[in-house]
Amino acid sequence: MPDFAASQLVEDLEENLFGVLEKLAANVDGTQLPLIDLSSGSPRQPTPPEIIASLQSAAENPGNHEYSSFWGKPQIRTAIAAFYLREYGVELDPDREIAVFQGSHIAVSGIPRALLNPGQVLISTDPCYPLYRSAARQSQADFYGIPLDESTGFLPDFSRVPEDIARRGGLLVLNYPHNPTGAMATPALFQAALEFAENYHLPLLHDFAYASIGSHRQDRPISLLSQPGAKQWGVEVYTMSKSFLMAGWRFGFAVGNASIISAFKKLHTHSYSTVYGAVQDAAVTALELPSERIDALADIYHQRREQVFTRLAEMNWPVRKQQGTFFLWLPVPEGFSGEDFVGKLLHEAHVLVAPGDGFGEHASQYIRISLTVQTELLMAALDRIAALEFFAG
Ligand SMILES: Cc1ncc(COP(=O)(O)O)c(C=O)c1O
């Protein structure tokens, strides 16, 4: 069989972090001590029953058996506008300011391709969700990550962007609550980002994947679009995967600046397909759930986070307390490189964690653990790690 070479563009893409982790895990013999995987970010609880019931009845509707429109049904766009008004006080035009698609992965990689020209720079953070780097590459643009560190609470300082990079900037991408560091945005951060966008005439993409998962129930993440002037410069991408436990359903939407939405929709019609009508109907049901019900879906992560904090304190493991998302970002103990530490956890405790350097050069001294695994397994993993006594008492 002939062996075909991948295109240069594909050759240049970095290997997917989770593919690398899967390979690492496959090399561990779990017969005596089963592997506990704390690396993945897929929610494990079932989707709320109201949403499932809505899909079931929508599947009976013959109207949903036809091709659906690229723009999405009017009902879903109206429901998204009502949701943004209720949750964030943001008014949206359902015809011009909303796009729907099969999961936010599509928009997070598609919006850069719809906006960037070769030679421009996608400016984001280091560390960041790895897809932003590959989105830049797929657009034949360069990537620049503003270094994030603990001293600034993992929030970017835009004055650190070199002038020549800012001038070549074609898109600014932010993501708060931040994967992987758990940092939460403040109004001041978004104002600084909007000023930077205005100074360099940059569109701003905010990936709001963890929109409903703050560091505790009262610490609600803020929407970029709820900030003054944001719609002029930005779009916000929302996914149903995390907040509504609908990761397998593949539904997300983008809201905001009409010119960005329009450019992305054009690319969308060429590169991707439409969303199954019954999934759109079920998403309407989800978005109409009361806010308290949505907040309650995140409570399991808040409970686990507190339990993990207690366990980490017993191990003398220093950790920042204000962390949103369903991950925790932990420093590697002194004397280890990130890679050595991840290897030691894997081989001696059979616990797989995500290495910081998968998210950026600036993050090699951290690991990311996920709070999506069952509480008993999470605690068992921490017991195994505690037994290795990394931090002196
Ligand atoms: C920051 C961030 N953005 C986007 C996504 C993609 O989510 P989905 O394609 O399920 O909507 C994820 C998934 O883990 C994520 O963590």
TrEMBL record:
GO MF term list: pyridoxal phosphate binding; transaminase activity
Per its UniProt record, the required cofactor names are: pyridoxal 5'-phosphate
Any keyword Secreted?
A: no
Entries under Gene3D superfamilies matching the protein: Aspartate Aminotransferase, domain 1 (3.90.1150.10), Type I PLP-dependent aspartate aminotransferase-like (Major domain) (3.40.640.10)
Q: Where is the signal peptide?
A: none
Per UniProt, the keywords (alphabetical) are: Aminotransferase, Transferase
The Aminotransferase class I/classII large domain is annotated at 35-385
Q: What is this protein called?
A: Transaminase
Look up and give the organism this protein is from: Erwinia billingiae (strain Eb661)
